[in-house]
Batch of 2 targets.
Target 1
Amino acid sequence: MIENISELKVMGDDRGKLSVIEGGIDVQFDIKRVFYIYDVNTSATRGAHAHYKTKQFLVPVSGRCKVTLDNGQEKHTFELNKPNICLFQDAMIWGTMHDFSDDCVLMILADDHYDDSDYIRNYNKFLEVAKNDS
Amino acid sequence: MIENISELKVMGDDRGKLSVIEGGIDVQFDIKRVFYIYDVNTSATRGAHAHYKTKQFLVPVSGRCKVTLDNGQEKHTFELNKPNICLFQDAMIWGTMHDFSDDCVLMILADDHYDDSDYIRNYNKFLEVAKNDS
């Protein structure tokens, strides 16, 4: 799953740094929704669900955290520790975010609008659907 | 220009906070591009340009900064000091970002892909175009 990591270009000068994500270019999909996690409890675990269809792109715009992706057969934990190191989470991948730094802000781009019926929140249900898909 | 400010809903629990921007719903346009400014020089001024067509939505996902919008006739300075207080910058508005906090990360959503010919970087040129538009 290492290919899920993208390194965005950093445009820096004496004013600071800037990185850009063009929908359909730097990320594999058109951006329909953006959400961001902030004022995090550093000991919390977030995510812990999969989506039937929604694809996501995770960007640690401040601080750092770890994200574990699980396709039902193998798990891989990624350290998101630079603002330009991003992670693609495909549909039908169970994702968990953890080990947040105090200053972590995790921005997530999604390829679809919010739809509660697209969530799989039970891990056994996820394994069952993943097995039937493969 | 006070109507340019949007206050996003904050979904908070013991894990932290989360805010969402649905393209075409929470922001007036479809999101084609996302960029973010980080590791800022607190004494820097950024922006200082207008766009012929591109509309933008500014979100201070970490820290705070000030943004001055100028339509060629009047200027207004906004303090972006909470992660859910956002600012809409229309086309043909000169925008300047300044007074960044150390920890400021400013996320900007745009309604179009990058196009260098859409920028007006000379203030006198901006005033001339704005005058002819009105």
Note: Residues 123-133 of chain A form the longest helix (11 residues).
Target 2
Amino acid sequence: MSNQPLKNDLLLRALLREPTSRTPVWVMRQAGRYLPEYRELRARAGSFINLMSTPELACEVTLQPVKRFPLDAAILFSDILTIPAAMGLGLHFVEGEGPNFEHPVRDAAAVGKLGVPDPDMELRYVLDAVRLIRAELAGRVPLIGFAGSPWTLACYMVEGGASKEFARIKGMLYAEPACLHQLLELLTRSIILYLNAQIAAGAQAVMLFDTWGGVLTGSAYREFSLRYMQAVISQLQRESQGRKVPVILFTKGGSVWLESMAESGADALGIDWTLELGDARRRVNGKVALQGNMDPAALFASPERIREEVQNVLHSYGKGAGHVFNLGHGITPGVKPEHAAAMIAAVHELSPAFHK
Amino acid sequence: MSNQPLKNDLLLRALLREPTSRTPVWVMRQAGRYLPEYRELRARAGSFINLMSTPELACEVTLQPVKRFPLDAAILFSDILTIPAAMGLGLHFVEGEGPNFEHPVRDAAAVGKLGVPDPDMELRYVLDAVRLIRAELAGRVPLIGFAGSPWTLACYMVEGGASKEFARIKGMLYAEPACLHQLLELLTRSIILYLNAQIAAGAQAVMLFDTWGGVLTGSAYREFSLRYMQAVISQLQRESQGRKVPVILFTKGGSVWLESMAESGADALGIDWTLELGDARRRVNGKVALQGNMDPAALFASPERIREEVQNVLHSYGKGAGHVFNLGHGITPGVKPEHAAAMIAAVHELSPAFHK
């Protein structure tokens, strides 16, 4: 792993609620389709799978937004389904449909056949990408590693792809909860190994993406999603090169359960745009930092209007430490790169006033 | 309109937080694809548009679930897009894709060309269906009329159909708010006329479906959705045949804004399954009745497990008036009718204990 000292530690400090001179900013899906240089590389790579599974290409994509914009973090370019893919489910991407598995997991027999992937073997391409990125970043900004949450991976594995109603996995949840728990435990063990391997390879912060936790009832969220994320967080290697490795937890649509999420052991919570950040801050009551939460659609407005929205988000969080500026969800493919630039510039310009 | 006295007024009483002997129950999308008799009639009708726009057929579909199950309400079988269709946008349904408009509304010029439909002319088929249904119901249970919220109709009109990211309408919201407000005002006036015409034709309660309010930020929800629903509610004819006509408001994904919704003038709020009903009840603090909120996916479990979930929902609301049992969203097409029957039977059996 690169031993170059970290030149910009704003992200790591803010995630641990330590004082900073301004609010750090990065963007979920910052490496992706809204950037022409990404689309060009994607076309050259031939397929999305080739792009994300070739360390040199994944490294190049990860660095693209960091080269273009004054961002305070890089996030590993990868897919949340690397673990199920490593389990042999046959991941493939259908244009316009998203991810699909050839071999979905729909009963106890199928769960029983699954093993925990060895990150150094089946997921080595991800770790190689992490090492390359760290070397290329040369300490410029920290690198965020990530994984899907156990529940979210289980959703894709049971449904066989993206879903609207989650009828299959919820059918399992209500009718065969023991089978689902077995799957979630296996995924929890896999994610712990995977994230610890990312940290050992150089990830300086990690994020758990619970994309589908928000489709559950409150009690099912605690039993089938949050509990397993807590188990993951409690077993992560939380130090690297003498610094703490902060953990960010993001449950899309989970604003209603914020108080429970603040007890998960995560250092920071990702907040979607439906909640006002000031309300979220009051509800978590100093227990965690907050990351978010500008409406991604605000990037369709003019640069002047974007600047206003940045000010609204900063003002809603208010003065003091513990805020990482981000969108409330991934950046939308149709957004103009200049509009992302306007947002990032506005954070640089407007946020110091909130740290005096 | 039918003058037969109402034999079962549990729904109307519960919506107004008056005491009842048990909790009334109906099911969002109770008339629909999970019923074989619906699928048969749908096939005979040739197209969904024909089915919903022929009063005799819409009446038959509306009555199907009421004949099969001991439900406490019928809900008009129609579509939330009748108003934009009446405005001449060219509504059509693409199999597997949902509704589409030939002429989406994307700028001030297109908004300027729209007029308020006269319910007695362009929407007469809906009112004829309401009158027929009331005659056929003969006072057995009350009939609920409905409309999409101004914001939800605007979403479909601007996007041209269903959407995942709502890039076009949110682009308009941030970049041309005045144009969007003009569209929302026009829709508000149209919905007031439409719902008042449904009430005059015989609807005994009405529901506003704000399917897409949940994609907004908190402040945008208040400015672009809630405010217009309040305007609708304040101008409804709230009495029919000597009884109050209760209004139910349902914003999918709106749990985070429940306190604001409780101030809307609605008598009851629909609650999706992400929030525990007991928490919702504490938050609205006696201002409104609550309708919901079993996870629709629980209907994939066994009848015994369904009964447990019914008990959980009843117990979460707790003792006393003001609860209408329902799912937290529309019933899923793949559900077995016997499972819906098990849920309804469990409400009949288990709820009296909460009304002693």
Note: Chain A touches chain B through 37 residues (CB under 8 Å).
